[in-house]
Amino acid sequence: MAKHVVGVVVGSAHRGSINQKVATALEKLADGQVRFKQIQIDDLPMFSQDLEGAVPESVERLRREVKGVDGLLFVTPEYNRSLPPLLTNAIAWASRPYGHNVWAGKPAAIMGASIGPIRTANAQAHLKTILGYLDVRLIGQPEVYIHFQPELVADDGTIADAGLRGVLEAKIAALAGWVAKLA
C-alpha cells in the first residue's frame, strides 16, 4: 500500500482528453509507490477577486484537496503555446487570497501530451515559472513531453509503448522519491 498520496491535476476536461488518458494510465504504473488522486478543476468559476469574499464550494473543495495530498502531478496539454485556461484558473484560485497559497511547499512534477510535434514544451516551461513563483517544489528530471498517438494507450488504459512506459515509470519513481523526501 502506498504511503503517500499524489494529487493529479489534469489541464484538460474534454471527453477523450489525451492528457486524462495518460494520467489515468499512470495509476497502473505506480505499482504501490504512490497513490494517485485526481483533483477536479473543471467546475471552478472563472477567478475573480470579487468572489473571494464568498468563495464557491468548488473552490473550497479544490483547496482542501490540494492541502490533503502529499505531492502533486500536473498533466497538461498546450494551448496557443502556453497553459490551458482551465489550469491557469485552478492555479489562481488555489493561490489566493494573498497569504493563503495552498500550493506552497508541495513537492510536484510536470508532464504533458500533445499531438503536436513540439509536444507540451512551452506549456511546461510556463507552468514551471508559475509554480516556481508559488513555491511549489518541482522535480526537474526526467522530463516527459509525450507526442501522443492513439496506439500509445491501449483500450484497457495500459501504456502500450514500452519506451514510453519506461519513461513514465522513471517519472513516477522520481516523483515518489521526491515526495517521500519532502512530505
TrEMBL record:
Where do the NADPH-dependent FMN reductase-like domain residues begin and end? 6-149
Q: Which GO MF terms are attached to this record?
A: oxidoreductase activity
Identify the keywords attached in UniProt to this record, alphabetized. Answer: Oxidoreductase
Q: Record's Pfam families?
A: FMN_red
Q: What is its EC number?
A: 1.-.-.-
Tell whether Plastid is among the UniProt keywords: no
PANTHER family assigned: CHROMATE REDUCTASE (PTHR30543), NAD(P)H-DEPENDENT FMN REDUCTASE LOT6 (PTHR30543:SF21)
Entry protein name: NADPH-dependent FMN reductase
